Structure formats: C-alpha cells, structure tokens
Amino acid sequence: MTRAIIAALMEPTRNPVISATGLFTPEHSISNEELVESFNRFVDRHNSAHAAAIAAGETEALTHSSVEFIEKASGIKARHVLAKEPVLDPDIMAPRWDARGNDELSMMAEIGVAACRQALERAGRDVADVDAVLCAASNMERGYPAMAIEIQQELGIDGFGFDMNVACSSATFGIQTAADYIRAGNARSVLVVSPEITSGHLNWRDRDSHFIFGDVATAVLVEDAALAPADHWDILGTRLKTVFSNNIRNNFGFLNRAVPETEGDPDKLFVQEGRKVFKEVVPMVADMILTEAERLGLDPENLRRLWLHQANAGMNRLIAQRVLGHEANDDESPTVLDTYGNTSSAGSIIAFHLHSDDLEPGDRGLICSFGAGYSAGTVFVQRVG
Ligand code: COA
C-alpha cells in the first residue's frame, strides 16, 4: 500500500450526522387571552388619548385584536418570553431587563449555552472533543465579538466560532455549514446554536403581527459519524435556497444612527406582508423539498415525519400535503407553534427535539426551515441506533 492510501485509510470517515439536540424554554408563557387583553387596553388608551384627532378625522382609531383571529389565522395559542411583565404592560410593550456589563454573560449566550449543555449531555460528549460553535440566529445582540465566541468560551471549547444570520433558516444553514466542515475535514464536532430572542424584534403594538413570535434557544450537535454516539441521525442530504424578497424585513441596524429621524420607527422592527409570504413561500418550499428528495433518490411519501418551520399552521398543512401526497396528521407533521409561537430558526429544531425519540432505526424524516430572505433549507435525516 502506498503512503497516500494508508493516510486515507487513517482519515476519519468525514460523514456528518446529528448526534443530539438541546432545547432551552423560558419559564414564562403568554396566552393569547393575556396578550389580547393587554393589546386591547393599549388600543383603548391610545384611542381615548387621541379622541379629538380621531373625531376630526386627522388620525385613524386603532382596532382591537382578537383571540379567535390569532388562533384561526396562525394556529398559535401561546408563546414563551424571557420578560413577560413588560411585554404585557401597555405602557411598555417590549421586553426589558437590566443592562449587563462586559464581564457578565450576555442574554443570547446565556440561553444558547443552556441549550448547548443539554445537547452535549444527551450525546455524552466531552467539550474537549468539540471543535466549533456556530451561532445561527435571526438577530444578534451586538455587532462583535461574535456571540458564538462567547458561547464557546463559556462552554470551555478550544476551537473556533462565528455568527451567521439567515433569519428563520439560520439553523438549517448552520447544519449544512457544520456538515461541510466535517466533510472537508476542518472539524469533527460542531455545535449549531440558535438563541432566538424574537420578543426583541417584534412590534407588540402592531395588530397584524403582535401575536407571532416567542423566545427560545436550540442547539444541534453535528459530528463525524466515527465520533457520534451509536444512537444518532444520519444526514442523507442538505440543500439551501435564497430568493430576495422585501415581504419579511427588519431594517434595524448599526447605520440607523446615520438617519436620526427614523429612531423609534416601527419600520426598525419586524414587518411583513403575511398574505404574500404565505402565497409565495408555500410553493417555493414544497417544490424545493420534492426536487431535493428526487435528487437523493427518496420517495417523499415514505418520509416518516416532517419537522417543518413553525410560522403558520396553514402553511405547514399545505406544504406537508404536497410533500406526502395526503393531509398530514400530527404524527407525520408535529406542531409546536401552538405553545411556542414562531421561534424563527429554532422552530423546526424544537419540533425535531420534542418529536423524534419515537422513530425507529431506518425511519427517515425531513427538517425544513423557511422565512425571510426568502430563505429555505432542507435536512433529510435517517435514524440510526
Ligand atoms: N385580530 C383581529 N383581526 C385581525 C388581526 C388581529 N390581531 N390582525 C389582522 N386582522 C384582520 C385584518 O384587519 C383583516 O381584516 P379585513 O379582512 O377586514 O381587512 C383580516 O384580519 C385578515 O388579515 P390578514 O393579515 O390578511 O390575515 P391572514 O389570514 O393573512 O393572517 C398571518 C395573517 C400573519 C397570520 C398570516 O398571513 C401568516 O402567518 N402568513 C405567513 C407569515 C409567515 O410565515 N411569516 C414568516 C415570519 S418569519
């Protein structure tokens, strides 16, 4: 045997798999009833404070929100948040907490670390064997240093970390990036962590969207199969797609101070054209899943479970139906948005984390995200154990 062949045989397998996942859920939850009661109090106060201008036709009266609408239009019944009281206080309607010093762990790092620790524990992984941390989320707490490096430091990982933002698709883009590091031999064990403090970018005073989001953190440990625990998920294939759209947008950014008159502008929070998103994203994602399944030689109708992005129950119903060829039941396409709301990139990972233990070795499924960008990511997996 030549030296090159011996060296190749000694190389690790470079076959990326999912070893384990972790989930941090904030203690506090807000029901639709609580949320609507607070929103409607804000509306009543606003309308009475502006009664003269409304009567004179100079400004429009605000309209009440409704529990029935929220549940029917989105499927959301509650959402977890890191700071419940200020969000429900009609005078604030935003999360609030004490500023943290540079020597204290930041908010995103704190909840990210909690999710990572659970993933490491479930995999039986020693941090000494982890090479990298990718913090993949819709919003970052600061420009730099990267959240991922702070999380890496707190966990005691010797390696590298960086942040990536692909909005609701951040986690699946992170999984493919981690898998590519493993395929290239640049890492053997990578944490993809998605701390989503979406309560910070949500406009809690906007009737059209005030009910959408919730806070959470997830972690996915992507590893070389040779290192992974016996019970893991083979990654059969990953595919990413982006198509520019202004229909989901958040204009907050460090250059906002260059345009001082826009400070406090609701445009610097999450905004969307929900109907357009619904109509444009459903076919884009269904086609992407079917094309990728074909490329991988998989029959989509034989997928045991779909762990779809958790934004809207109606979107998931339509996508699942097109993929599976029939109306999916809860077992085939589990829902977590009813209690978590839309948790951006973490949604499909929460669904996978909470609803995958019952699958048998050989069962195949799909983790799929979609959202702002537009962006979409598919991760086809198969249970091994
Ligand atoms: N309470 C009561 N009524 C409300 C309301 C509220 N909070 N918000 C809107 N409405 C009303 C509207 O005024 C409108 O009334 P009209 O028909 O008299 O004009 C009606 O309900 C329908 O509004 P619309 O915004 O068209 O609702 P929808 O059925 O499209 O549902 C979303 C809204 C946002 C739930 C839905 O479009 C959606 O989830 N889309 C996908 C969004 C998504 O995935 N985004 C990704 C984010 S990352």
UniProtKB/TrEMBL annotation:
InterPro entries: ACP_syn_III_C, ACP_syn_III_N, Thiolase-like. Keywords: Acyltransferase, Transferase. It comes from the Bacteria. The keyword Nuclease does not apply. NCBIfam families: PRK07515.1 (NF005703). Gene3D superfamilies: 3.40.47.10. GO terms for molecular function: 3-oxoacyl-[acyl-carrier-protein] synthase activity; beta-ketodecanoyl-[acyl-carrier-protein] synthase activity. Residues 294-381 form the Beta-ketoacyl-[acyl-carrier-protein] synthase III C-terminal domain. Transmembrane segments: none annotated. Its EC number is 2.3.1.207. The lineage of its organism: Bacteria, Pseudomonadati, Pseudomonadota, Alphaproteobacteria, Sphingomonadales. GO terms for biological process: fatty acid biosynthetic process; secondary metabolite biosynthetic process. This is Beta-ketodecanoyl-[acyl-carrier-protein] synthase. Residues 162-241 form the Beta-ketoacyl-[acyl-carrier-protein] synthase III N-terminal domain.
